[in-house]
Amino acid sequence: MKSYSGFRFGVVAALALSGPALYGIAAFAPAANAKDPNGLEPEESDTATIEAPQAGWFYVRGGWEVDGTAIYDGKSGKMKGIVASSQLSDMAIDPAGKYYYISETIWSKGNRGTRQDMVSVYDSQTLKLVTEIPIPSRILVDERKQNFVLSADGRWGFIYSFSPAQAVNVVDLAKRKFVKTVELPGCAALIPNPGVGFSALCSDGTMATVTDPAGKAAITHGPAFFAASDDPIFENFAYDKAKNTAIFVSYTGLVYTAKMGASPEVSAPFSLQEAAGYAPAVTKPLSVAWYPGSRQPAAYNAASGELFVLMHMGEYWSHKAFGDEIWVLDVAARKVVRRLALKEPVGHIEVTQQAEPLIFVNDEKSEGMILDGRTGEELHRIETAGSGVISVASGS
Amino acid sequence: MSARNRQYLLLAAGCLLGIASYASAGDPAPAPRFGMLDPALARSDYIENCGGCHGVTGSTAPAAVPELRGRVGYFLCTPETRAYLLRLPNVAHSRIGDDQRLAEVMNYVVFVLGGASAPPGRLPFDGAEVARERRHALSAANLTDERARNVRIVMRQCNGPASLRSMYDPLHSR
């Protein structure tokens, strides 16, 4: 019985530690504070908290077979926590830093039962579930950033749906309510468009823009600027918040920039290979050159205006091949300013938005590497870091 | 593989199966049937470009996909409902750039998969009609509403069954 009462006092003391009555309670519970003669300390249960999203943090998905999105501090290479993201889910980060939003689909009995589509809202400091916002449907693909984008002010969430009719579900994240479904035939890959709504890339080579998505949701299409069948654009676009510009890379390495707005203006493209002093890559078979590729081939640092692209030697339609080099493109100058060789091929790349950026890359074996954004020098290597898509708190 | 090579391979496969025996070497050029000079190519184009969601035989019920089998022919009812089929974005924006080849795919859809549902006397699609309509893709419309509107026309003017309102007919689907 003695140990039982000691245990009870210990719990009280532990609970009291976080409250204002610490000293008052602790005075009646000396057992919890007493030094054990054998050097054993009673273990106290508490809930750790972490900071709000930091500029130097990376969010790395476990991968297809491993649920959860691990948060790593880029500077130390240490893990901060894990956001509960299920297999069929996409994550978006509240621009105010208060919440992590997981748009996900689960079934009541795991692999069967009632299908449930929702946005799960997690507190960014406790990583505890705050609430769930039911939605009617979403595309059953995991970890694609462009399937779940937020408005710049964090008020609206736009969730791509493919039932297989193409549509976008609009969620009011302030009221935590599903608002409406906007059908968007023939389009995919959502792009934020602040003050307007959102845009998307379409199969006719145009960009569609949905104005006032929660209201009348008017759809307009700009002129066709790419050939979806001949030289498609990677869905993994980059976005420069300050310049309100989206940056796209095509399978052959054409770089397009789009000034977002009610009628986005797309620039004439330029060749990534030409920007590195080579001939532009082409769609012709058996024509070997450096091509962009992998699952998440490009990341953008807005401070320097540099696009980091995973490149490999191959021919056209090798766009899923992992990258052997990172080409750093100065987008405004249209010049590849650095080429960073990688020790092993990687499938995803992300870069922090700091003035001295850090790069995170990972491979199929879940090996994660944090590299210096200037030199490519390996700063940290993390085993089982996650083999999925990588995000940072702000920017792309 | 070039489209032409693929065409020959498919024809060869079709001959082996006895499907396209009329196209074997030495025969005179076949008369187009249901607007298809090359039914085997039309079928393979359908499977490659449409079958993933609509199903190899035109049905993926109970998935939320309009069932084509035994139903899609009704949309040949009026010029407007015909145009609806060609203006669907995934038809109009198809990777099949050749209008005649796309017309043959759509003729396979409405006459073969659609079976007896095509109202009598309706002409097959041709390249000119596809070229005209695919320029007006329904890419800024609510397709659910557009479909419902066209189903009402089909029900009113061509005796289309009320089950067309649903994605599939629960009584007759597999």
The average pLDDT score of chain B comes to 86
Low-pLDDT ranges of chain B: 1-25
Rounded radius of gyration of chain A (Å) = 24 Å
Percent range of helical residues of chain B: 40-55%
Main β-sheet of chain B: number of strands, strand sense, barrel status?
none
Written description of the protein model:
The complex is a heterodimer of chains A (396) and B (174). The N terminus of chain A is likely disordered. In chain A, strands 16, 17, 18, 19 and 20 form a 5-stranded antiparallel sheet that branches. Chain A is built from 3 helices and 30 strands. Chain A is mainly beta. The N and C termini of chain B lie far apart (36 Å). Chain B is 47% helix and 0% strand. At the A-B interface, strand 15 of A face helix 5 of B.
How does the SSE layout of this entry go?
The complex is a heterodimer of chains A (396) and B (174).
Chain A: H1 2-17, H2 22-26, H3 30-33, E1 57-63, E2 66-73, E3 79-83, E4 89-93, E5 99-107, E6 115-123, E7 129-134, E8 148-150, E9 156-162, E10 166-172, E11 177-183, E12 187-193, E13 197-202, E14 207-211, E15 218-221, E16 238-240, E17 245-249, E18 254-259, E19 265-266, E20 270-271, E21 289-292, E22 298-301, E23 306-314, E24 323-330, E25 335-346, E26 348-351, E27 358-362, E28 368-372, E29 378-382, E30 390-392
Antiparallel strand pairs in A: 1-2, 1-30, 2-3, 4-5, 5-6, 6-7, 8-9, 9-10, 10-11, 12-13, 13-14, 14-15, 16-17, 17-18, 18-19, 18-20, 21-23, 22-23, 23-24, 24-25, 26-27, 27-28, 28-29
Chain B: H1 3-17, H2 39-49, H3 51-54, H4 79-87, H5 89-92, H6 99-113, H7 127-133, H8 143-158
Helix pairs in contact in B: 2-6, 6-7
